[in-house]
Amino acid sequence: MTLESWIPLVTIGGTRCTVRLALALATVALAGCHRSPSGSGIPAGVRYVPRAEWGARPPVLPMRAHVPVRITIHHTGVAQDPRRSVESKLIGLQTFSQRDDSLASGRKKPAWADVPYHYYVAVDGAVAEGREWRFVGDSNTPYDPTGHLLIVVEGNFERDTLSSAQRKTLDILVPSQARRFRIPEAALGAHRDYAQTSCPGRALYAELPRLRGLIPSVATQGNQR
Ligand SMILES: [Zn+2]
């Protein structure tokens, strides 16, 4: 089927403008080809769940804008749960994030504007959109996450190990985000590199050298954002 075969003949002001309409539609179609469907920057091959799909509420406080210059890995610190949907996990995380609450350590946390992380990697390998990457995230610990693209991985990696689906997703997500924001391999780190915490747990921290090796040295060339 050619493009023209489904374009209706249109008459405007007595002049047939089928060709012009066809060209306009073709331009739109081509422009669409250069973007991922949602403009997410998440490559094909990874199941992506944007905010609208998991039912995110709007942020409840003002947020500061930033541009990511490093990628920082976290874990959720709670056991992986393959029976619960990623949508439900994100709703729970957002509800917890947006209210004053107590942490597992008993310390209080203030209400945050939104989910503290930019991407959430569920045990089944799906990636959910957290806080929009354009805004600085939040942390339970005193370090300034300005410029950090925060990726949280479901699990407590002091005890758990990455599921094969999580490993496959990280192997795609981390290099693609490095390329997208021109982040060099040396700027891939973990929460514990910046604050006194065991996050993201031993098993996940041990993956970092391998993940750095997947970041192409051309990450600093060509911005695909
Ligand atoms: Zn952390």
Walk me through what this model shows.
The strands form three sheets. Strands 3-8-7-9-4-10 form a six-stranded mixed sheet, with helices on both faces. The protein has a two-stranded antiparallel ribbon with strand order 1-2. It has a two-stranded antiparallel sheet with strand order 5-6. Mean pLDDT is about 85; it is low at about 1-40. The two termini are about 35 Å apart. Helices cover about 25% and strands about 15% of the residues. The protein folds into two domains: about 5-35, no CATH class; about 50-220, Peptidoglycan recognition protein-like (Lysozyme-like). The protein has about 220 residues and is α/β, with parallel strands linked by helices. A hairpin with a 5-residue loop joins strand 5 and strand 6 (about 110). The longest helix has 18 residues, at about 165-180. It binds zinc ion (ZN). Zinc ion binds near residues 74, 197 and 199.
Sum up the structure in keywords:
single chain; 225 residues; alpha/beta; Lysozyme-like; 2 domains; 6-stranded mixed sheet; two-stranded antiparallel ribbon; 27% helix; 14% strand; globular; disordered N terminus; binds zinc ion
